[in-house]
Amino acid sequence: MAHPMMGAMRAAYGESGPKGRLSRGAVRRILGYFKPYRLEAAWITLCILITSVLGLVPPLLMRNIIDHAIPGKDQGALFRDVGLMIALPAVGGLIGVLQNWLAVRVGQAIMFDIRGEMYDKLLAQSLRFYTNTKSGEILTRLQSDVGGIQGVVTGTLVAVVTNVLVVVTTLIVIFGINWQLSLLAIGILPLFILPTRSVGQLRKAIAKETQERIGELTSLVQETLSVSGHLMVRLFGTATYESGRFRAKNDAVRKLQIRQNVVGRWFFFSLLLFASVGPAMIYGYGGWLAIRDGVITVGTLVALVAYLGRLYGPVSSLVNVHVDLMTAAGLFERIFAYLDLVEDVGEKGGAVRLPEPKGRIAFDHVGFAYERGKPVLHDVSFEARPGELVALVGPSGSGKTTITYLATRLYDPDAGTVSLDGHDLKELALDSLAGAIGAVTQETFLFHDTVKANLLYARPGASDEEIEAACRKAQIHDVIAALPEGYDTVVGERGYKLSGGERQRMAIARVILKDPRLLILDEATSSLDTRSEALVRQALATILSGRTSLVIAHRLSTILAADRILVLDQGRIVEQGTHAELLARGALYARLYEQQFLDAEPAPRAG
């Protein structure tokens, strides 16, 4: 027979995790995830009720065997009761399998819902969130934290219902058998119930710190084992250093997890002690009653002791619901923190859609700061009309890239407005805005997928002929055709199977396929070889033609082709005009021209 306290011990420690206190609002919010699965919950409850009732029968069969079948030498009754003692747990076990399947199914469904909700919330965040948050921390919350709540669904909540039903049915039966011994059994409960509360807070703190350290470890792994991170480690020869960092963080996780599993062992020692006291007192007092006046039979005494396991274990587990909810709280606090993130670049109700965007972008007295009190743009105003090429020029850190971020609404301005075709970007539907704007950045991103899949990201319904035409315009078709599987070739993590120039031309082909009215371009080609740069220039000439373009200029040819040049310095537009006009003024642009552009790319000679 299983020790009557083992269930209590498992519930108190062995199967519990981080602990915390949940508010009523949080509990209601959690229960709200169960509403779509009410039918499954009803079936789970019915299964628990049936197994609880079936579990009451074996001790009664034991009493009948001891008090009647054996003394009366009734073999039929003996074999019948023994058979039932085997069959009933088997039936209960099968029902338990069904119950567990339903519980796991509900748990997985709720995890699916929460993970999807969190992913959508993360997609809606602005670039600011991702520049301030480690990617490993995001992955930990999306995977580990959400994964951890299945134990709450399939473990804690099911255990609460199970234990309540088991305790209620057991109390009914034992009081029906002998009320004096039942009162004694209940009177022993405080000896091991009260100490359980002292364990929860300590384990909550340890588990919360463990999750944080796991997040740090995940971030380190993702940074150092990505393509870019691995290249950095190899090029700088820091493998030993990074290995040391990994071992240190991994060791911190190891120590915390050991503490989490070791803390409270003296508490469990006391549980074992009290577990022995209960049956001993029942046998002692019950035996005395049996000897004195025979008011209780040996079979009844044995049955009552057998019921102790069905009483002490579930009651202790119910007390430990406090501890179990503390376990869930640490996870739900972290999950809700992400689900409650404010969308600082969100979409308003009744957002405007642009059926035929023209591409007119305007900044009206725009101010912006990445950090409060540290503005990077001051009162910036300009307009790029449809079909116009506006070049952004200025020293490093002058605000050029920030202007492109605001134009694509990766951020919202702190002051002033940015508008497209006369509509404030905040009023536009996000997908409509994204459809009107295309961007090619210095750091081209490609998914670990086929060439074709990366191109179709711009326009999922594009035909093979349209894809090929875009690639020909981007001067990349011949390269793709020469790949082992052509357009079905997997480009590798971040596209590292392609050269820098090839990745850039892929990005240009993707934007050509999208065919936006407004193009945002950071055209850096300094890292490319001469041939790749020439091909990229040809591709850029194609993409710039006939659309509004806002270009961070790195080459003289773009400056000469620009309809207007905006010269930025310390977050302000200090000059604007054509190349000739700005050069004639002899101010900042003229100095930049002499220092940067003229040396980098001599202007073509006249005649």
Keywords, separated by commas or semicolons:
607 residues, 2 domains, 10% strand, Rossmann fold, alpha/beta, four-stranded antiparallel β-sheet, disordered N terminus, disordered C terminus, six-stranded mixed β-sheet, elongated, ABC transporter transmembrane region fold, 25 helices
Short description:
The protein has 25 helices and 10 strands. It is α/β, with parallel strands linked by helices and 607 residues long.
The assigned CATH architecture of the largest domain is Up-down Bundle
Looking at the structure, the CATH topology of the largest domain is: ABC transporter transmembrane region fold
The structure class reads alpha/beta
- Biggest pleated sheet: 6 strands, mixed
Rounded Rg: 36 Å
> Can you tell me the CATH class of the largest domain?
Mainly Alpha
What is the share of helical residues? 55-70%
Can you list the strand order of the major beta sheet?
6-7-8-3-9-10
Work out the helix count: 25
Secondary structure tally: strands: 10
- Structural shape: elongated
Q: Beta-sheet strand percentage?
A: 5-15%
Structural overview:
The chain has 607 residues and is α/β, with parallel strands linked by helices. The chain folds into 2 domains: 334 residues, Up-down Bundle (ABC transporter transmembrane region fold), CATH 1.20.1560; 240 residues, 3-Layer(aba) Sandwich (Rossmann fold). It contains 25 helices and 10 strands. The strands form 2 sheets. The protein has a 6-stranded mixed beta sheet, with helices on both faces. A 4-stranded antiparallel beta sheet has the order 2-1-4-5. β4 and β5 form a beta hairpin. α1 runs parallel beside α14 and α3 packs antiparallel against α4. It is elongated and about 120 Å long. The N and C termini lie far apart (104 Å).
